[in-house]
Specification:
This protein is of the alpha/beta class and 243 residues long. The chain is 30% helix and 23% strand. It has helices spanning 19-22, 35-45, 59-66, 86-93, 95-98, 116-126, 140-143, 196-206, 226-238, and strands at 4-8, 29-30, 33-34, 50-55, 75-80, 103-107, 110-112, 130-134, 146-148, 154-157, 170-172, 177-180, 211-215, 220-222. Strand 4 (50-55), helix 3 (59-66) and strand 5 (75-80) form a beta-alpha-beta unit.
Length: 243
């Protein structure tokens, strides 16, 4: 069983300003609770015990709110960034807290109504270095197309790596949840900001390493804009997410 996870919570949330001038985006309330608390519920239901949260913008507010994690049934530690390191650099910075065993990474500004244990079981059965949760969406190309072959192996992400792929591919969007083997750190640079989707994953594919996509039709919300926040709040009040 996988027991470690990382929540990416360092972003500034500029598109939600002025709300995020004083409240870090992961603590913005959705259906009566900070979104981050919903995320922690998902992780705990999936068997996670230890959580790393990366911090930058208003990070002290997040740290004060979560504390050591005991009131959420978790052990929470923090990975501070200055400057902010984007997804790839942020995960690499947290290597001392995550290395040595597989781990989950989840975005701090979105949420899937998913059974995390099933994702983890899929990851372990396939034996890849990474698993991306993906979902069909009519706007998948706008989010950044994740393309899978008939075996659910990821073959191309946002058009990378370049070159022809002879197998027919199916396109999905990535809602911000992955599972990694510790070997992922061997493919990541330290102390520099970069996107794990646009930089690290294409390296893995170009080297022939196995990356799989777990396809789900699960409900998904994000709070990256005021409209998306209002929609997430309405949907989760009407039908709370269950893990």
């Amino acid at each position: 069983m996988i027991r470690r996870a990382m929540v990416l919570a360092a972003g500034r949330g500029t598109r939600l300003a002025p709300l995020t001038n004083t409240t870090p985006k992961p603590l913005v309330p959705v259906a009566g609770r900070p979104l981050l608390e919903h995320i922690l519920s998902l992780l705990r239901a999936g068997g996670i015990e230890d959580v790393v949260v990366n911090l930058h913008h208003l990070g002290h507010v997040i740290e004060q709110h979560l504390g050591d994690g005991s009131r959420f049934g978790l052990h929470i530690r923090y990975s501070w960034e200055d400057p902010i390191l984007d997804t790839g650099g942020g995960i690499k910075r947290a290597e001392p807290l995550l290395a040595g065993e597989p781990f989950v990474v989840i975005n701090g500004d979105s949420l899937l109504e998913i059974q995390l244990r099933e994702v983890i079981d899929f990851h372990r059965a396939r034996g890849g270095v990474a698993t991306m949760v993906v979902r069909p969406d009519p706007q998948a190309a706008e989010y950044g197309l994740i393309e899978l072959d008939a075996t659910d192996r990821v073959r191309r992400l946002v058009g990378l790596p370049p070159g022809e792929v002879t197998d027919p591919l199916r396109g999905y969007m990535f809602p911000g949840l992955h599972v990694f083997e510790p070997a992922i750190f061997d493919w990541m640079e330290a102390d520099t900001p970069y996107s794990i989707v646009r930089v690290t994953y294409p390296k893995l594919l170009a080297a022939g390493l196995s990356v799989y996509g777990y396809i789900t039709g699960a409900r998904w919300v994000t709070i990256d804009t005021p409209a998306a926040l209002a929609d997430a709040d309405t949907r989760m009040r009407a039908a709370p997410f269950r893990f």
